[in-house]
Known about the structure:
Elements: E1 10-12, E2 19-21, H1 26-38, E3 47-57, E4 60-72, E5 77-84, H2 93-102, E6 110-114, E7 119-123, E8 129-132, H3 140-147, H4 157-171
Parallel strand pairs: 5-6
Antiparallel strand pairs: 1-2, 3-4, 4-5, 6-7, 7-8
Helix pairs in contact: 2-4
Amino acid sequence: MSDTLKPYSMVTDFVTGKEIPNVGAEENRQMVERFLVNEKGYAKEDIEVDVDIEISVAGQSYCSQIDLVVSVDGGAIRFMAFKCAAASLGSREREILAAARLLGENQIPLSVVSDGRTAILLDTVSGRKRGEGLDAIPSKEQAQEQLNKLIEQPFPAEKREREGLIFRSYDSMNVNVGRNIK
Length: 182
């Protein structure tokens, strides 16, 4: 078996301006980034790309990345976490929920799976679907209004190990991603 990687092209990331490998769902992520800025009113500075996440599962560290994390209120509060997918969105819901629950001290309120053409919006705390389609994604203005009612909630410590196992299980299936070829 050869260790040679398939040839790939490079694209300029819309948010960061950096050259990145065009592999996996990268074109889908670029569509989501443009949509958030051009249609939903977020500034590029509100969007974090390839956000590092480190969790512990069975005493072992597992490191990965979340495709996009959107903040409002000057970056003080992370509001939405995105998984950009090239295929079945429903199969990625559980992965982004787990990531949004585990990334920081408090859960990120909304989890989104999108292919750039449609989306599934989930309430992170309850895991319930809040909407479908790109229109379901709150604009920056709507997000700021929702922050006024937001009560930040940490994920229960006794559930972190199980949630980490869920995230690792789904995330480890993501083999066609830029972080694997850098």
